[in-house]
Design goal:
The protein is mainly α. The protein has one domain. It contains four helices and no strands. The two termini are 17 Å apart.
């Protein structure tokens, strides 16, 4: 799988839409990495969000409405996971092997 989260250096779970220990660990690690980038390297964070194709308007809304970095990191994590699920759903729907998993 083409890992669009390579900038965050976190492996993507096979089914991020499901609530499993792997997904919980993924969310925790991603939130921690986002928080680190918020505090130390915002340019890399913005680049990563752009590469994942997160709506700039949605990101700006989060930054406008939330003053605390940890809450911003959680909201950005949610946006990233929603976008990953959307991409995976589209790939599964239109890939030649789409019969493998239509449980989304």
């Amino acid at each position: 799988m083409n890992n669009s989260l390579e900038i965050f250096e976190i492996p993507i779970p096979e089914h991020p839409e499901r609530d499993t220990p792997d997904v919980s660990l993924f969310k925790a690690n991603l939130t921690k990495q986002i928080l680190f980038l918020l505090e130390k390297d915002t340019a890399t964070l913005w680049n990563g969000l752009y590469r994942i194709d997160i709506s700039e308007n949605k990101v700006k809304e989060i930054f406008k409405g939330i003053p605390e970095s940890s809450e911003i990191a959680q909201k950005l994590c949610t946006l990233i996971i929603e976008r990953l699920i959307q991409k995976m759903t589209i790939r599964r729907k239109y890939s030649p092997n789409s019969d493998l998993d239509k449980t989304l």
